[in-house]
């Protein structure tokens, strides 16, 4: 059973006057511990990035870079053709943009979490994952990558020594392999059912797949999406259920530090 877990959410996912979902970021920030801030390619613009960084600081939420495919129209959830070199350069460009806004406000990036179809491409593509992790080893060797435990991203980062945070997806279904079932529209799920699913994953380390199979899951962070309809009810039910089980919510930086301390104590 977990005693502490991170709750992360994708934030700043708008552009100019365009908005998505039925919940504002400011409503969600008090309930999360890590924010994945869209960096301009699938969503986000300079003014919104600046505003979202300030909101994260206001609510004491850790900041993550959330780069995506260059696909505003498709919200970064469409597969784009290209080379690993092109995609890694797109990631570098977006992380650099968010890093400068963080520097402006005297704060730092906690982690990097790719978005949508880019996340799924990294999960399946060994060459792309290797190029991405090699960039991270050079630019930010102590910065965690958020990914699925069943992914090339995880395997490559572990092999090369890059810090990793495995995610559990509250508002997405799982297949029997342990991968999420990728969707461009999750509809409006039942917040109480999601809360039960999350608590079971934390307490038992199990989740039921779309085929009805129970599989094992391990993770450090719970993800839900700000564009999922009813996002505020979802995170409210999750937090209440987790708190009732005595599970603390904290940024992954604190969780990883705790794990490191435990390793040192065992040594």
UniProtKB/TrEMBL annotation:
The molecule here is called 5-oxoprolinase subunit PxpA
Tell me the GO molecular function terms: 5-oxoprolinase (ATP-hydrolyzing) activity
Question: Coiled-coil ranges per the record?
Answer: none
One BP term from GO: carbohydrate metabolic process
Q: Which gene encodes it?
A: pxpA
Q: Which domain of life is it from?
A: Bacteria
The top EC class is hydrolase
InterPro entries linked:
Glyco_hydro/deAcase_b/a-brl (IPR011330), LamB/YcsF/PxpA-like (IPR005501)
């Amino acid at each position: 059973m977990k005693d502490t877990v991170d709750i992360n959410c994708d934030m700043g996912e708008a552009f100019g006057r365009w908005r998505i979902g039925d919940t504002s970021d400011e409503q969600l920030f008090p309930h999360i511990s890590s924010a994945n801030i869209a960096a301009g390619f699938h969503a986000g613009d300079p003014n919104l990035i600046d505003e979202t960084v300030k909101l994260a600081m206001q609510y004491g939420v850790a900041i993550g870079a959330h780069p995506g495919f260059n696909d505003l129209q498709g919200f970064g959830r469409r597969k784009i053709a290209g080379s690993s070199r092109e995609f890694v350069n797109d990631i570098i460009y977006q992380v650099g943009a968010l890093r400068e806004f963080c520097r402006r406000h005297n704060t730092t990036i906690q982690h990097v979490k790719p978005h949508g179809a880019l996340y799924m491409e990294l999960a399946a593509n060994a060459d792309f994952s290797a190029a991405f992790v090699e960039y991270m080893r050079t630019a930010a060797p102590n910065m965690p990558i958020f990914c699925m435990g069943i992914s090339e991203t995880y395997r490559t980062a572990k092999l090369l020594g890059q810090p990793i945070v495995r995610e559990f997806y509250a508002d997405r279904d799982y297949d029997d392999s342990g991968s999420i079932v990728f969707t461009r529209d999750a509809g409006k799920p039942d917040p109480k059912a999601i809360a039960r699913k999350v608590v079971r994953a934390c307490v038992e380390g199990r989740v039921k797949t779309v085929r009805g199979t129970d599989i094992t899951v391990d993770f450090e962070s719970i993800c839900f999406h700000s564009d999922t309809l009813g996002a505020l009810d979802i995170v409210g039910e999750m937090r209440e259920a987790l708190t009732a089980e005595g599970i603390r919510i904290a940024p992954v930086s604190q969780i990883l530090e705790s794990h490191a301390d435990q390793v040192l104590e065992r040594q």
